[in-house]
Amino acid sequence: MYSIVTTWLQRSRELENILRLFNIGQYENVYQNITFQIQNNGYANTSINHIYIRAKAALETSHSRDAIADLTYIMNNNTKFDQKYIRALRAQAYLNIGDVQNATNDAYLAKLPLSFFKSVKKAICLLSLNSHDQFTIERLLKICPESTQALMAAAIYFRKQNNPRMFYRYARGALEYEPYNANIVTELVNFHVCNEEFDEARKLLINSHMNTSENVSDAMIEDFDPQVCYESDKLVQNYEVDKMIQMKEQGYVDEAFLGLTELARKGNPRAFYERAKLFLESNCEECAKSDLKRSKGFNDSNIIISQLKMKTPCQILELASKCSRSSALNAFRKLAREWHPDRFHTPLAKYIAEKKMRKINKAMEEIDLEPFDSLFGNGEDSWLVDEDGAHIMRIQIF
Predict the structure, then answer these.
(1) pLDDT in tens, 77-130
(2) How far, in Å, CA of 49 to CA of 44, rounded?
(3) Which residue, of 11, 173, 216, 357, has the greatest Cβ tally within 10 A?
(4) Cβ pair 205, 238 in contact under 8 A
(5) Rounded to whole angstroms, how far apart are CA atoms 131 and 278?
(6) Measured between alpha carbons, how far is residue 18 from residues 4, 70, 261, 280, 343 in Å?
(7) Strand-strand pairing, 317-319 and 381-385
(8) Residue 123: helix, strand or coil by DSSP?
């Protein structure tokens, strides 16, 4: 009996102390204190009064999701509290997180005033917008301050306004509520990547996989993690492509070429596309077409491909009808000397030269095998004269 009384007195003093903190506005302390009890003892072994006070404190400290859990528990397990009042509190909590359907249901059963339903209607209109300005963002965050959709709308708005500090603030706020949301994680990973904070980006991905929650199963994490890792790798690669484009514009063409080649090996379509543009600027249509095919339709690559004409080795050479086979081979040898890779010292030029040399060697092999009638073609030419000067031939610089 003594122990029961002592326990009751201890709980009474504890509740009195909590109420004192609540009444002087120490909501966060109250919330943390009772949350610790619930985590250790569970709902069943925690006083219903404590749970109710935590719900009230949670509403004051942007923890509406916990408030919803507490109020739902009270409604299901205690009849002493006024159900309408509990529903009214829960309706506000639902509206805070942007759950307008449940907010409307609870507000209707609690018979809340018309002003609440007007707020719900405004929230529905604002949440349905595809783009926002500062006014709509402010209104939305005032009505639904804990909605991840609202927070991400604010983050994207500030990203477009080139305000990284505010973007990060709202994106991190959204992540705290939904740490497994792929869109939120991807936005933040992109932010870290653009700031060259690769360790932070990777840490964010690891944490999103390692964290556990009552609402997230291991299967969901396993499905989610590869997707985010893939998005992260793609974002990193695209960021590197942007860097290579910038280097090219600054005049570092060969460095840009090497970087794009490395990214192209990883199968990045943008890398293929940008390298193709570099080849076109260097008058190597053959190299460009090969890369454009592998850019998988990126941007207007299909249009560019349709404008390029693929040349077979035998179409490279257009000869006068009296030209001998030996004269044709001599002309190709001269062309081979001009395009020998050893004569070039930059990576881009060497790459193009090697490509042309393979074409020249293949053409020379075919000249030995094919009748001259199949060697005639059309194109933009440069004129060469064979060694004895007797015959004129045209060799297309492809």
Answers:
(1) 876 888 999 999 999 999 999 999 999 999 999 999 999 999 999 999 999 888
(2) 12
(3) 173
(4) no
(5) 36
(6) 21, 17, 64, 73, 84
(7) unpaired
(8) helix
